[in-house]
Amino acid sequence: MRIDHWFSLGVHPYRQSSGIAPGKTGQTGRRDRVEISEAAKELQQRPTWAAEREEKVRRLKAQLDSGTYEIDARAIAEKLYQFYKGDGR
Predict the structure, then answer these.
(1) CA 34 to CA 17: how far, in whole Å?
(2) CA atoms in the 13 A half-sphere facing the CB of 14
(3) Structural domain boundaries in the chain
(4) 39, 60, 78, 83: which has the fewest C-beta neighbours closer than 10 Å?
(5) How far apart are CA 10 and CA 19, in angstroms?
(6) pLDDT of 15-69, one tens digit each?
(7) In this protein, which residues make up the domain named Anti-sigma-28 factor FlgM C-terminal (predicted)?
(8) Which positions ≥6 away from 69 have C-beta within 8 Å?
């Protein structure tokens, strides 16, 4: 049984049942609308810490490439001391 003859007769069963006249589809006067909350907009934005981190990594890579990067042994020792003493994280 062939069922594709419906469209060849100029009869579209779904169009007739929707009540929309041929040629008027999509022009109903109603528009779709999407609203995005302020919280969602904030989540979509890039966090500031990410930009700061990228800048820091870029700066350190430039120092490594140029050979000007210097290790601050005193700062490392102080951080280790604070960590093991329990003051740091």
Answers:
(1) 28
(2) 2
(3) 48-85
(4) 39
(5) 16
(6) 655 555 555 555 667 889 999 999 888 888 878 888 899 999 999 999 999 999 9
(7) 32-81
(8) 60, 63
